[in-house]
Amino acid sequence: SVDELLTYGRQFMSFFGSCPNTFGGLARLTLENLRLGESDFPKIFSICNQLEFLRFQQCDAGNMSLLEVEHEQLRELLIFCSSIKRVALKCVPKLTILKINAFMSPEDPFCLGYVPLLQTVTVINTGLSRHKMLKLSELLGKTAISTLHLNFKCEKVSGGPQCCPSVVCCGEVVVIIFGKHTSALSPSFADLGETRRSKAIATGVPQTKACEFDQHF
Question: Locate the F-box/LRR-repeat protein 15/At3g58940/PEG3-like LRR domain: which residues (predicted)?
């Protein structure tokens, strides 16, 4: 319940505040089932300044809250089952892997600031009617990632199962398969079309060498 998340959050921050030197030496941290205060996340990022791996599961600072990330050493960020409105990666110069799994927000799940080393982006979610269409050209901007993994679980492309695409990479070419029809496009202009229920458009993804679009039935 929300009350339990708040209680766990207060208990964790009490523990966190009692041993900052211990947390300051951590390279990996996983937090689960916590609702923290607005100032708690910046405090965690500031004290845990050696973190290279960070995983949040059902952690936020309130329903539809904004999570701003600024960290000099963080290389991998995983966020699961979150009611965070958006993850704003303001300045994470060493980040290489970003994974967002199951988000409630109808908005874009993240926005990219200074992330020059970002290589792998994974977005996994059941695309519901409240979720906006993900336009990857806007979401990724000019970030030159090498691997993009999209998984919208049981959702289908409008038009029936025969139109459901799978996307693989052949060298520098993204291959999009709609049933028996195959088209090959350059990674810079891969277009999954107006996939109404799959909630993704990959138009203009910059320099993406591998793109996976999974749909499980």
Answer: 21-130
Contacts made by residues 94-98, CB under 8 angstroms, sequence distance 24+: 94/52, 96/120, 97/122, 98/122
Q: Which position has the token pair 């979720």?
A: 131
Tokens 């209680």 appear where?
Answer: 7
Q: How many angstroms separate the CA atoms of 198 and 192, rounded?
A: 10
**What backbone phi and psi angles, to 5 degrees, belong to 152?**
-110, 25
Please give the model's pTM, rounded to 2 decimal places.
Answer: 0.73
The count of C-alpha atoms lying within 13 angstroms of the C-alpha of 53, restricted to the half-sphere facing its C-beta, is 4
Burial class (CB in 10 A: 0-12, 13-18, 19+), 193: middle
Compute CA 170 distance to the chain's CA centroid, rounded to the nearest angstrom.
25
Give the pLDDT confidence of 16-57 residue by residue, as tens digits.
999 999 999 999 999 999 999 889 999 999 999 999 999 999
CB 111 within 8 A of CB 89: yes
